[in-house]
Design brief:
Elements lengths: L6 E6 L2 E6 L5 E4 L2 H15 L22
Antiparallel strand pairs: 1-2, 2-3
Length: 68
């Protein structure tokens, strides 16, 4: 599936920063196009199915909660 996202791009010293406005993902590059290419890759990794190499341990945590 292909989706379109909005990216904000700006320059910080010698780097261009590209930030996705819909998802909290950003990247950078030496040019605007490189920053956008790196952002595309970062977004693809962000939406990739998680692949666990170890089975996670499930634990219970007790927390004392007081009414405000």
């Amino acid at each position: 599936m292909e989706r379109t996202f909005t990216a904000s791009v700006w320059r910080e010293e010698s780097w261009f920063v590209a930030q996705c406005l819909e998802v909290d993902v950003a990247s950078q590059g030496e040019s605007e196009e490189q920053a956008l290419t790196n952002l595309r890759e970062a977004l693809e990794l962000y939406f990739e199915e998680p692949q666990s190499t170890l089975v996670p341990k499930m634990r219970h945590v007790k927390v004392q909660v007081r009414a405000a």
